[in-house]
Design goal:
Its EC number is 2.6.1.11. With 401 residues, this protein is of the alpha/beta class. 38% of the residues lie in helices and 18% in strands. The longest helix is centred in the C-terminal third of the chain and has 25 residues.
């Protein structure tokens, strides 16, 4: 079917998205091409998904090889790619056990159910409160969107799951006053993604760990966006010198192939006994084979070091743009999760910058209306960063004109 266009979307798709005008049809590394053959630099990465760029040859080879062997089995059986990937995740992190899903939302759903189940079995049904944070984002299922701290995503879907408290992110005093014996879990993003690329303070993360230990609550880190090398560490918790009890991963885990995972310490994982949770496609051989290869590449120390080095170049270039046009209040985030917060004069105009960048053949993102977000391939070259930043400067010039 070659006669589809952007207008086809409006004719046949549910209108919950509003995609931009172009339709990409081919990708290679940090480059994309649309139906007309126009070339773009991709600093969006499918919202931090394409951690190794588009169509990385080793991921393509892994997919082709597994595609000729085995695609799907029910959970009556296990499979070699799932076991190999789980072993790598256990060996490379704090975790003892892994549960595979298809997405970040599913991984978080599993984590929140696990926390409630663990608390109920060990302490009683009254220990059910989940503490989350305002402006957080944890998925689009009814449970995960309720745990998320953005009311715009829950409006119209009431009644919502109960027993969820939302506090100010990075507010230690408020956290200390809120946690109680009835708290079963505290869940946070090491860097709030959709909430504006806001990193957690080290002291705040340490306090969450301390309070979870004190009140027998499960510490859950949502690393859907920060995990798999995005911050320059394999997972962002490694920046803080603490270990969570449960961690969720997706997005970059499959390098573009849909897969999610919940990682857990043994005593918490034991709560999900046979039949308590499941996923038809979770842990399928295709997804796990691709993710296993992605893990091998991303966990290479040279790749992780490169992320930190490229971060410096992004900050330098953004500072140079800002010195000329005065549009950003600050640059924040970690590694190649880059957030350029707009200053007071340009509040609410992040989409304008995103659209202007596309007109300059550069793909970037928003993190809310006030933050320009970039999450390029971890393998982006310095030359590509230079080219992309030159395009961004032209876009900024157009917006401020």
């Amino acid at each position: 079917m070659t006669n589809v266009s952007r207008e086809t979307f409006d004719e046949v798709m549910v209108p919950n998205y509003s995609p931009l005008k172009i339709i990409p049809v081919k990708g290679e590394g940090c480059k994309l091409w649309d139906k007309d053959g126009t070339e773009y630099i991709d600093f969006a990465g499918g919202i931090a998904v394409n951690a190794l760029g588009h169509c990385h040859p080793e991921l393509v080879a892994a997919l082709k090889e597994q595609g000729e062997k085995l695609w799907h089995l029910s959970n009556v059986f296990t499979n070699e790619p799932a076991l190999e990937l789980a072993q790598k995740l256990v060996d490379g992190t704090f975790a003892d056990r892994v549960f595979f899903a298809n997405s970040g939302g599913e991984a978080n759903e599993a984590a929140f159910k696990l926390a409630r189940k663990y608390a109920s079995e060990n302490f009683g049904p009254e220990k059910n409160e989940i503490i989350s944070f305002k402006q957080s984002f944890h998925g689009r299922t009814l449970f995960t969107v309720s745990v998320g701290g953005q009311p715009k995503y829950t409006q119209g879907f009431e009644p919502l799951p109960q027993g969820i408290t939302h506090l100010e992110y990075n507010n230690i005093e408020m956290l200390e006053n809120a946690v109680s014996e009835n708290t079963c879990a505290i869940v946070l993003e090491p860097v709030q993604g959709e909430g504006g690329i806001i990193p957690a303070d080290k002291a705040f993360v340490e306090k969450v760990r301390e309070l979870c230990d004190k009140y027998d609550a499960v510490m859950i880190l949502d690393e859907i966006q920060t995990g798999m090398g995005r911050t320059g560490e394999l997972f962002a918790y490694m920046l803080h010198g603490i270990e969570p009890d449960v961690l969720t991963s997706a997005k970059a885990l499959g390098g573009g192939f849909p897969i999610g995972a919940m990682l857990a310490k043994q005593k918490f994982a034991d709560a999900l006994k046979i039949g308590t949770h499941g996923s038809t496609y979770g842990g399928n051989p295709l997804g796990c084979a691709v993710a296993s290869k992605a893990f091998d590449i991303i966990s290479n120390p040279a790749v992780l070091t490169g992320v930190k080095e490229k971060r410096v170049l992004f900050e330098t270039k953004l500072q140079m743009i800002n010195e000329k046009y005065e549009v950003f209040d600050e640059v924040r985030g970690e590694g190649l999760l880059v957030g350029a917060a707009l200053n007071e004069k340009y509040l609410g105009r992040a989409r304008d910058f995103m659209v202007a960048a596309l007109e300059q053949n550069l793909m970037i993102l928003m993190a809310g209306p006030n933050v320009v977000r970039m999450a390029p391939s971890l393998l982006v070259s310095e030359a590509e960063i230079e080219q992309g930043m030159a395009a961004l400067e032209k876009a900024v010039a157009k917006v401020v004109a």
